[in-house]
Write a structure and sequence with these properties.
- The protein is elongated, with a radius of gyration of 26 Å.
- Helices cover 50% and strands 18% of the residues.
- 24% of the residues are buried.
- Helix 6 links the parallel strand 4 and strand 5.
- The protein has 12 helices and 11 strands.
- Strands 1, 2, 3, 4, 5, 6, 8, 9 and 10 form a 9-stranded mixed beta sheet that branches. Strands 7-11 form a two-stranded antiparallel sheet.
- By secondary structure, the chain is of the alpha/beta class.
Length: 327
């Protein structure tokens, strides 16, 4: 038993040293990467698809048939039109817009009027200012008169739909969640608990409505009314924005905060076609060169740890307070 104890102690010390060395190395590498914030990555999806098809045909056909098929493929001209594929998997704070703006800038530097951009969008919505900026990034594509298609395989609700409505065409999987054109805010208030424990909270403001509702002080009816008025105003802006970019909608019918599945969304003109992004891409491979554009942000070790902690904290707090969120 004494041997096992000493051996275990030795392993623990060794593991501690190894971890410490690994952390030091990671910090050194991270420091060297400080000047490089991120980089663009390009993937030729057309080439990947051709290689996949070639491998399958080689397995399924006899040598003579495969040779004839392969020769025919080589005789086909390279497509001149291009389809740029961007992915946006949005979180509550929409921090992904940082990469999106870089990707769109890169695409707009080379795209022409004959090209197309496909956004594979997935987002349940989030903060107003974040998704407002994200929608503005997509509008940059439209302003350059480049065709924009948005594909929703899972969810594009609230702020996510605010982005989707910019597109010339919206595709949705049959059971994708779409809509939720509304605004919600909720805020816990601990005033009664603090008062019960004889704790005073003093709040000082300049301007009658600098703070309408608060977490710790006592909320007033006038403050609540003003806060509700601000929510209603935000909802009106949201509705007007969606209707401007998608005039086929009966906006009062769909701007109730409800969400719908793809089948229902098609009937309500929230989407234009029931189709997954996979099916759409397969259709494009024969006529377009399909390129995926991705901006990979390089983060320092401390930033990675901080981002992970921030994400976990945000997720927890969002169950209590969703102030000024598209929902």
């Amino acid at each position: 038993m004494e041997f096992l104890y000493q051996y275990g102690l030795f392993l623990a010390k060794t593991a501690t040293v190894v971890i410490a060395v690994a952390v030091i190395i990671a910090l050194i590498v991270s420091a060297k990467q400080k000047a490089k914030k991120g980089e663009l990555e390009f993937s030729d999806l057309s080439l990947d698809y051709r290689e996949l098809t070639d491998d399958l045909q080689q397995q399924l056909l006899d040598k003579k048939a495969y040779k004839a098929w392969s020769k025919k493929q080589k005789q086909q001209d390279e497509p001149k039109e291009r389809l740029f594929v961007l992915d946006f998997n949005g979180s509550m704070d929409a921090h992904e817009v940082e990469a999106l703006r870089e990707e769109i800038t890169a695409v707009l530097a080379v795209a022409t009027a004959t090209d197309e951009v496909l956004i594979r969008l997935e987002s349940p919505g989030g903060v107003v200012h974040g998704y407002g900026l994200a929608a503005s990034q997509l509008d940059r594509i439209k302003q350059q008169h480049i065709r924009l298609t948005v594909a929703v395989d899972k969810v594009a609700a609230s702020g996510g739909y605010m982005m989707a409505c910019i597109a010339d065409r919206i595709l949705a999987a049959p059971f994708a969640i779409v809509g939720s054109i509304g605004v919600v805010a909720q805020l816990p208030n601990f005033h009664k608990l603090l008062k019960k424990n004889h704790i005073d909270v003093e709040q000082f403001t300049a301007g009658e409505f600098k703070r309408t509702v608060t977490v710790f002080a006592e909320n007033t009816e006038k403050g609540r009314e003003k806060f509700q008025q601000e929510l209603e105003q935000t909802h009106v802006l949201f509705k007007n924005f969606v209707h401007k970019h998608r005039p086929v909608l009966q906006i009062d019918q769909v701007a109730t905060g409800e969400h719908w599945f793809g089948y229902q969304a098609l009937e309500l003109n929230l989407v234009d076609q029931l189709q997954t992004s996979d099916d759409y891409l397969v259709q494009q491979f024969s006529s377009k060169k399909v390129v995926q554009v991705k901006y990979q942000i390089k983060r320092k070790l401390a930033e990675k740890v901080g981002l992970a902690a921030s994400t976990a904290l945000t997720t927890s707090l969002n169950t209590l307070s969703n102030l000024s969120f598209w929902r």
